[in-house]
Amino acid sequence: MTVDLSTRYLGLELRSPLVASPSPLTRDPDSAARLVEAGAAALVLPSLFEEEILHEELELDRSLEAGSDQFAEALDYFPAITSYAGTGDQYLDRLRRIKARVAVPVIASLNAGTPGGWVRYARLMQDAGADALELNLYHVAADPSMTAIDMEARDLEVIGAVRAAIEIPLAVKLSPYYSAFAGFARRVVDAGADGLVLFNRFYQPDLDLDSLDVVARLELSRPWDLRLPMRWIAILRPQLPPGVSLAATSGVHGGADAIKALLVGADVTMMTSALLRHGPAHIRTVEAEILAWLEEREYESVAQLRGSANQAMVEDPSAYERANYMETLHSWASPPAATSTARS
Ligand SMILES: Cc1cc2nc3c(=O)[nH]c(=O)nc-3n(C[C@H](O)[C@H](O)[C@H](O)COP(=O)(O)O)c2cc1C
């Protein structure tokens, strides 16, 4: 029996649910081609950042002697890249080269936090051949004068502006740090998102105790990180219209992780850390693991499996989550060593 692995994501027909999420591997045309050879059903390019576009424009302004020092302090925080000149053009060029190289859908990515003129890049990405766009909303709500309502309104404005700029499908990659996530997810869809990518991983900085410097530490995910997207995809799947796509990102390392994400209702499962750790060929292994699991249980397709463990039967997801929480805490059994130490 041949198991049908195909899936639909953002209206695109994919040969399997395994998508390579943004990383240095999807930046370079050679490694992008290797990912596709190993079975990646779609690629998401690394993000072009709002700041890179603004910085590029500012440098251009300066070179025309019409610039201002308005952003001088903000620019000091930027990574030590000697010049942003041409960053946008280079991005579009890479997108075209990758598109010409692979036969799977290529999704471009924009990372932004505020509305602005950078939105025109969404259109340029579409014109350069992107099959869809992923908008990554990344910000830390550190301004005490901004309320949650203000922050959400700004995000929805950004989504609306990008939606208005393009005709290709739009996915929005979100962080889990919204105070009322289910309501916000629905409004993201109402603002024009065709799909949600859950969740953005925040890279928390560390301190170096010798230099007292803040150090950026990029740590790859672990399968445990899948629990958060899994919970929210299970909750959101029955709440959102069936045509809205859901992608799981964070913690998909092997076939078992991908199957769990599909069971709760993900349309695709995305991978970065596992591919950086094991190389592009790892996609083949994950696909074989999914196939073996499905065949053993006599599933005919991924579609048959998808969503069979979501919360559609749960009347009150909040009460269900509280009950689970209590049960989890009560399930703790002290290890024997801890018990005997406590007695002695
Ligand atoms: C080195 C590296 C670069 C990344 N670059 C981007 C990026 O440009 N845009 C983006 O949306 N996510 C980026 N990510 C996040 C990944 O796409 C992914 O969402 C995250 O790592 C969680 O998935 P994982 O558990 O499979 O790693 C990056 C991750 C890593 C490790």
Quick tags:
344 residues; alpha/beta; TIM Barrel; 8-stranded parallel β-barrel
Description:
By secondary structure, this protein is of the alpha/beta class. It has a single domain (about 5-315), classed as Alpha-Beta Barrel (TIM Barrel). Helices cover about 45% and strands about 15% of the residues. It has 15 helices and twelve strands. It has an eight-stranded parallel β-barrel with strand order 3-4-5-6-7-8-11-12, surrounded by nine helices. The chain is globular, with a radius of gyration of 22 Å. Bound molecules: flavin mononucleotide. Flavin mononucleotide binds next to strand 4, strand 5 and helix 11. Flavin mononucleotide binds near residues 21, 47, 201, 252 and 273.
Terminal residue distance: 60 Å
Give the helix level as a range of percent. Answer: 40-55%
Order of helices and strands: EEEHHEHHHEHEHEHEEEHEHEHHHHH
* Bound ligands, each once: flavin mononucleotide
**What class, by secondary structure content?**
alpha/beta
CATH homology superfamily name: Aldolase class I
Strand arrangement within the widest β-sheet reads: 3-4-5-6-7-8-11-12
**Largest sheet, if any?**
8 strands, parallel, barrel
Give me the count of strands: 12
What is the helix tally?
15
CATH secondary-structure class: Alpha Beta
Mean pLDDT: 89
- The CATH architecture is Alpha-Beta Barrel
List low-confidence stretches: 66-71
The name of the CATH topology is TIM Barrel
This entry's quaternary arrangement is single chain
From the spread of the alpha carbons, the general shape counts as globular
Q: Number of folding domains?
A: 1
What is the CA-based Rg, rounded?
A: 22 Å
Portion in beta strands? 5-15%
